[in-house]
Design a protein that fits this description.
The complex is a heterodimer of chains A (248) and B (402). Helix content of chain A is 39%, strand content 25%. The longest helix of chain A is centred in the last third of the chain and has 18 residues. In chain A, the strands form two sheets. In chain A, strands 6-7-8-3-9-10 form a six-stranded mixed sheet, sandwiched between helices. In chain A, strands 2-1-4-5 form a four-stranded antiparallel sheet, covered by helices on one side. Chain A has one domain: Rossmann fold. With 402 residues, chain B is an alpha+beta fold. Chain B folds into two domains: 184 residues, no CATH class; 166 residues, no CATH class. Chain B contains 13 helices and twelve strands. In chain B, the strands form two sheets. Chain B has a six-stranded mixed beta barrel with strand order 2-3-10-5-7-6. In chain B, α9 packs antiparallel against α11. The chains are: A alpha/beta (248), B alpha+beta (402). Chains A and B meet through α3 and α4 of A and α1, α10, α11 and α13 of B. The structure holds adenosine-5'-triphosphate (ATP) and magnesium ion.
Chain lengths: 248, 402
């Protein structure tokens, strides 16, 4: 994968004190009377290894911010560096390679391919990386074991509980060992017990691998697992600090 | 991404929806099967015509009275029949040939209680070789019988089967017209050729037919066989110039006879069957096109249905071209699968029809290759648009799709 090499090299070549750096990011939908400022001048920096929760009321721009951080979406204006690379200068395929090699995603729901085994789902990112089948299988089984689902490897998503599905999604996000994990309300569809288990899972993975975790949530109890909370209102970042400082 | 994995993904997607995949390929299956069957059957028909013509006698020339058909409308005026002297002249003056006169009529034939109207040909012993139709048993005409016009006959197998009904034919007396006639030989079975039952015939000495049945001392056709291959052209020219001297042309130098080569007839028939083959093939190709549109339709539905899946793939790091290839390979796999099944059915169908109709079973690798390539090409052409649609999806929009 030479394209991956290029993106990867430029991403690694400069010393990056911050994994993520946003300056004056705007995301504006529509225009005139119907204009919506989903992000209204957001600047933030996140260090490698931090566990950051993004909070705020509904419609405050959490998901929009997360999607831009994850290079799934591009801002209307502003600058965004990911590991020292200005993302605005990259094309569609380069962004895809950035996601492939440096990010893992967990969404709120419908994370898994339907009618596909947990194992195949976890193998998917490795397929795009061009890893050979035997090695792929081994790595995917390891990742499933990490989230405690090795024995359910051949179950399809319809045969798994919501919590198990999220754990498979986490395994899939981490199987390529990306430095950054992005999760948009990973516990949004789960009850408190299951949500707590998923959070403990994330905390332990972070301790083992030292990865950076960016997580959107609107539940204070979930946000408390993080060591830093960003609070959004109306597209603006209005508070930034430890959970104790930010969450009332 | 490894090519084998792309193929694997596509095969999995096809296998996940077996019934739908089958229905999608049905159009291609029918299209390829009908193209392959039609073209093969056309070739088989051509082969069958060629074989029938060979069975009439190769290097055979028909010399007929009348003006040759020319131009549209094909006016053919009747002309005087030939004389036996014309036959003698051709025999003596043209080298390297066998000549048989023919005076054709039909007569009511009575065998015991059975009677039927049968074509009767007055000819000589050269007939057997020239027309490639030999005796099964019995004997040929004797010289005395030929010169005196004796009432003897050689009969075809149809008479044995339908009129003699197991009685001994050789030596029997049958009634041909008003003449009592002794059977001296039986022709080998020849079957149907060009829509004519060649076994339903009676051969008699030409003079016997002239005097006893027709009452005219002439000959209605002359069959000439060139002994060496490739000499029919020269022979034809020699016969034409000879007959021009012997006969008076009709108004303004138009010949009042014509010479036909079996090759001419073969070519005319072959071009007819070829035209028919092309026509049928073209109609079948349209159904292949319809099959392609079916694939495009289902692939478009599938792209919409799997928008969320595409979103997940894009988030995981699939590039536009990865998604494009995945969907393109999927449609190519579908259409190729249909093509292979269609080939098998097409060849099987051809075999069944040729077996039923007693035609030669012809299999052309070219037709198979073209049919197969067409199915692959259709997968590419009709799969490209849906695949492109999938590849161009915005990751965010795709992920938001419910
Ligand atoms: N594609 C879009 N077109 C127009 N407006 C949009 C679009 N996507 C988001 N918005 C608007 O941008 C604002 C921020 O949306 P966003 O999804 O980021 O909110 P959120 O904080 O994630 O909310 P929730 O907690 O409900 O998920 C909302 O007002 C939303 O209506
Ligand atoms: Mg949201």
């Amino acid at each position: 994968m030479t394209e991956a090499g290029n993106v990867g090299q430029s991403a690694r070549s400069q010393p990056a004190p911050y994994v993520v750096e946003m300056r004056d990011i705007y995301k504006i939908y529509g225009s005139g009377a119907t204009e919506v400022r989903a992000l209204d001048g957001v600047s933030l920096s996140i260090r490698s290894g931090e566990f950051v929760a993004i909070m705020g009321p509904s419609g405050s721009g959490k998901s929009t911010c997360m999607n831009i951080l994850g290079c799934l979406d591009v801002p209307t204006s502003g600058e965004y560096w990911f590991r020292g690379v200005e993302v605005g200068g990259l094309d569609r395929d380069e962004l895809a390679l950035l996601r492939r090699h440096f990010m893992g995603f967990v969404f709120q729901s419908f994370n898994l391919l339907p009618r596909t085994s947990a194992l195949s789902n976890v193998e998917l990112p490795l397929i795009y990386e061009g890893v050979r089948p035997a090695r792929r299988h081994e790595l995917a089984m390891q990742a499933l074991a990490t989230v405690g689902l090795a024995e359910r490897a051949h179950a399809t998503s319809a045969q798994l509980s919501g919590g198990q599905q999220q754990r498979v999604a986490i395994a899939r996000a981490l199987v390529t060992e990306p430095p950054v994990l992005l999760a948009d309300e990973p516990t949004g569809n789960l009850d408190t017990v299951m949500a707590g288990e998923i959070m403990k899972e994330l905390v332990s993975i972070r301790e083992q691998k030292g990865i950076t975790i960016l997580m959107v949530t609107h539940e204070p109890d979930i946000a408390r697992y993080a060591d830093r909370v960003l609070f959004f209102t109306d597209g603006k970042l209005i508070r930034d600090g430890s959970p104790a400082e930010v969450i009332p | 991404m490894r090519a084998l994995d792309t193929l694997g993904m596509s095969v999995q997607a096809i296998a996940r929806n077996k019934l739908r995949s089958f229905l999608t390929t049905l159009g291609i299956i029918i299209g390829v099967a009908s193209v392959v069957a039609m073209v093969h059957l056309g070739q088989s028909a051509t082969r069958s015509v060629t074989e029938q013509i060979a069975s009439i006698g190769s290097n055979l020339l028909f010399v007929m009275p009348g003006t040759a058909q020319r131009g549209p409308g094909g006016l053919r005026t009747t002309a005087e029949n030939f004389e036996l002297a014309d036959v003698e002249a051709i025999r003596n003056e043209v080298d390297g040939i066998l000549v048989a006169p023919a005076l054709t009529t039909s007569a009511t034939v009575v065998v015991g209680n059975a009677n039927d109207t049968i074509p009767v040909i007055g000819t000589t012993n050269e007939y057997f070789t020239v027309r490639n139709h030999y005796l099964d048993y019995g004997r040929e005409f004797e010289d005395g019988e030929l010169s005196s016009g004796a009432a003897v006959c050689i009969i075809g197998k149809t008479l044995i089967e339908e009129m003699f009904l197991g009685q001994e034919a050789l030596g029997a007396n049958i009634r041909v017209g008003r003449t009592a006639c002794r059977v001296i030989g039986v022709l080998e079975e020849k079957g149907e050729s060009m829509g004519q039952d060649r076994d339903k015939t009676i051969l008699m000495p030409v003079k016997a037919v002239q005097r006893r049945l027709v009452g005219e001392l002439d000959v209605s056709a002359i069959y000439v066989s060139a002994l060496a291959d490739g000499t029919t052209g020269v022979v034809q020219e020699q016969i034409e110039s000879l007959l021009r001297q012997r006969r008076t042309p009709v108004n303004g130098g138009v010949d009042d006879f014509y010479v036909r080569d079996t090759q001419d007839i073969a070519q005319a028939l072959e071009s007819t069957t070829n035209t028919l083959t092309i026509l049928l093939g073209a109609i079948a190709a349209v159904s292949l096109l319809v099959g392609g549109i079916g694939i495009m339709n289902i692939m478009l539905v599938s792209v919409t249905e799997r928008t969320r899946e595409i979103g997940i793939r894009l988030a995981i790091g699939a590039r536009a071209r990865d998604v494009l290839t995945q969907f393109l390979v999927e449609s190519i796999a579908l259409s190729t699968l249909g093509g292979v099944i269609g080939l098998v059915i097409g060849v099987g169908g051809t075999w069944l029809v040729t077996w039923q109709l007693n035609m030669p079973f012809v299999i052309s690798p070219t037709v198979m290759a073209v049919g197969f390539s067409f199915s692959v090409a259709i997968g590419i052409i009709f799969g490209y648009f849906p695949a492109r649609k999938a590849a161009m999806l915005n990751p965010i929009d795709a992920l938001r799709h419910e």
